[in-house]
Amino acid sequence: MTLALHPSETVRTVEVRVRGRVQGVGFRPMVWRLAQDCGLHGDVRNDNEGVLIRLRGDDARIGQLVAELQASPPPLAQISRIEVSPFAGAIDTGFRIVPSAPGVARTEIAPDAAVCPACVAEISDPRARRYRYPFTNCTHCGPRLSIVHGVPYDRAVTTMAAFPMCDDCTGEYADPSDRRFHAEPIACPACGPKLRLVRFDGGEVPSFPQAVDDIAAAAMLIALGEIVAIKGLGGYQLACDATQPEVVARLRRLKRREAKPFALMARDLDMIRRYCAVGELEEAALRAREAPIVLLKSSGAGKLPEAVAPGHATLGFMLPATPLHVVLFEAFDRPMVMTSGNVSDAPQVTDDLEAATLLAGIAPYALVHDRIIANRVDDSVVRMMDNTMRVIRRARGHAPAALALPSGFEAASEILAFGPEMKATFCLLTEGRAVLSQHQGDLEDVATYDDYRRNLSLYGDPFAHRPEVFACDLHPDYLSAKLARQRAGEERLPLVEVQHHHAHLASCLAENGRARKAPPVLGIVLDGLGYGSDGAVWGGEFLFGDYSAVTRLGCLPSVAMPGGAQASREPWRNLYAHLVAAIGKREFVDDFSGVSFAPLLAAKPCATLDAMMASGTNAPLASSCGRLFDAVAAALDLSFARQAYEGEAASRLEACVCDKTLRNEHPALAYRFGLVTHPRKPAVFDLAPMWRALLTDLAGGVGVPVIAARFHKGLAAGLADMAEMLSGRDCGGARFDTVALSGGCFQNRILFEETSRNLAARGFVVLSHSAVPANDGGIALGQAVVAAAQMIETGADRRKGH
Fold first, then answer.
1. Active site at which residues (predicted)?
2. I want to staple 782 with a disulfide (CB 3.0 to 4.6 A). Which of 455, 503, 505, 626 is the partner?
């Protein structure tokens, strides 16, 4: 952005409009300081469009201030654009911050940010006023989304409104030289929220003479083997000593979380390095203001109990994100399990009474406080893949940060996309940006669905979003899609139903800034299940197209899922169905009856499955990559009978891969996937060569890690082979040189990296996810941009004269 200069003038009065994430991040104090340095007069205020600055002064000085704002905004700010226009009104001498102006909201709410180094130093200093105070914050850190009720972002519309500032805090708040100048959540022990250690049953808390406060007492309880509930930033957490196997096992049993890995928290990087390898980018992610859970290779000298992450080769660690956690670890020299405060897959508890009811059976003790959690926000999860940090779960620290839309979407309607059913998120399209909600969970859980509906209203109000178009998944039974159809009928608004895998592809394109009118690409979309445009179940797709439309050029073969949804939970069903479909029951019995899993399979009701598949009764066909992974994991007895959580079989298969085989073994030993072409149908993989090679290796005593590596390598090569073959076709008059990778299966690091490498070796440009999850957590963005593109191209959107 450049400021238009008028050579004949040396003094001007202008209005500077700054849009984006500019409230609650120390933006006004920065403007005040820059104006003082530049000798400019005027004022700055928050309003419902962002920040408004009025300036009088030398042309060059005004340009200097604007350039400085653009180049070096406050750490938590994100500027979408700056507009400078002449101002005809009078401007008083001096520069001041004025009260926020009311109006219609068009700004952004900042995500919660991890405690900054300055605040950490303060709470660690016995001489400081906020020594060990668990609600310390400043303009560079602390709560945002989790405490806010609306915009403009002022204390009055946060849960901090219940805590009037003391004289000392008022002085800091009003002092432009203080880093707490206009920090809305400002607090101290004299005036802010209070924390206490309680027993959920009302009983007496043990006395620890050596504990300086309730946080220290909680740490001692954890060291003694207790599970303690902690009221965190965006919800309750359950904490215990991660090094005590019996305590971790007890937490699993009481929380009813059979096998899914627990999140871990450590005091510092040195503690994490006892157990995990931490690379440079992983260290940066751990230290980042988002403070996510980072999935790390568990290769340190120390070993944590198997119950922390059963069957996994990675551990999910995070550093303390709040002052409470920093103080908790001050005298605790071991990692803690720090998992969501809930039972099974229910939403994280935020309400104190609900916590006392639901969590008392898990954690006898709790660290509670009197600040209300306005908005539930879980921890974000990231993972390093192909030298890029990639978001697996987008929540605290990331949501609701807006994403800029690619060029060509300037005429987009105000759109609300309702997202998927699992890993639920929704997306608002407004003013050239996409606002993707935080991760909310599985909508089949009643409490999660209620929370999802509440959040739809929550986001609509602060962003003043008034949808003109709804978008949803094509699936007839998704709860999110049913709600979209209901509201579209009630509000008489257009509804765009978007095929699941098209939404995955569009999400990847949008995240990568692919212009709306850019040439079509090939999308390789691999996941568990999605409703296809032909009414069948899809999950291993090669889609050629763009935002507006796609053509299915290829897919994995459609294999029966005997038992329907039960097949997603019991991998042996997929194994049997795949063997029957690929090589037939007779060949398996004749040639491979000696493999290790044969007795296990013989004990199952396979005759019943035969009847189901023959009649098509409760045995839908699915081209699912997720179910293929389940089948292979079952064959290797990594997850044969039942999955304790979605994706467990695939995770265990990835975890056991032999790195040496992956890196060094000749590619010819990887399992081959055949390609079958049809003149008027999608090309299809032939899985028979892969299954014969895998079964031969298994029967010959080849190790499971080697087989797992050969499967991953072979599948990745097969995906690239299919892409290369399809690029030679006449795809509707256009060829492609770009391939976009999306879908939950590409959260598998080995599959993703091997596929990317194979595609690049064949000359393709590869697009992939980093800021938006590749799994279903990202498809709401895809639904939104597909709906926008279709409305623009059909001429349905004329709001802006396009």
1. 28, 46
2. 503
Q: Say yes or no: 698 and 783 in one domain.
A: no
Type and span of the H or E element at 467: none
Look at residues 755, 788, 798 and name the one whose alpha carbon lies nearest to residue 774. 755
Give Dmax over CA atoms of the chain in angstroms. 94
Beta bridge partners of 495: 470
CATH code of the domain covering residue 446:
3.30.420.360
Question: Alpha-carbon distance 503 to 789, whole Å?
Answer: 12
Q: Which of 730, 740, 628, 736 is nearest to 685 (CA)?
A: 628
Give, to the nearest 10 degrees, the angle between helix 479-491 and helix 446-460.
Answer: 40
Q: Read off the pLDDT of residues 521-557 as tens digits, 9 standing for 90 and up.
A: 999 999 999 999 999 999 999 999 999 999 999 999 9
Q: Based on the domain organization, do 705 and 565 belong to the same domain?
A: yes
Q: Are residues 351 and 203 in the same domain?
A: yes
* 482 plus 574 within the same structural domain: no
Residues 372 and 496 in one domain: no
Q: Is the pLDDT of residue 691 over 50?
A: yes
Beta strands 11-21 and 550-555: pairing type?
unpaired
Q: Is residue 642 part of a domain?
A: yes
| SS3 of residue 790 by DSSP | helix
The verdict on residue 780 lying in a domain is yes
- Residue 40, domain extent: 11-97
Residues 356 and 421 in one domain: no
Q: Which of 78, 97, 116 delimits the end of a domain?
A: 97
Distances (CA, A) of 289 to 115, 144, 319, 621, 727: 8, 13, 11, 45, 42
Which alpha helices (DSSP H) does 440-560 contain, by range? 446-460, 479-491, 500-511
228 within some domain: yes
Q: Are 739 and 521 in contact (CB under 8 A)?
A: yes
The CATH code of the domain that includes 634 is: 3.30.420.40
Q: For the whole model, what pTM was predicted?
A: 0.93
Catalytic residue (choose from 19, 28, 267, 672): 28
Q: Based on the domain organization, do 362 and 415 belong to the same domain?
A: no
| Active site (annotated) includes residue 137 | no
For 218-264, write each residue's pLDDT tens digit.
999 999 999 999 999 999 999 999 999 999 999 999 999 999 999 99
Q: In what order do the strands lie in the sheet with 95-97?
A: 78-86, 11-21, 50-58, 41-47, 95-97
Q: Please tell me whether residues 359 and 225 are part of one structural domain.
A: yes
Q: Is 46 a catalytic residue?
A: yes
Catalytic pick among 19, 21, 46, 487: 46
With a CB cutoff of 8 Å and minimum separation 6, the contacts of 353 are none
DSSP letters, 391-448, are EEE--TTTTT-EEEPPTT-TT---EEE---SSS---EEEETTEEEEPPP---TTSHHH
163 falls within a domain:
no
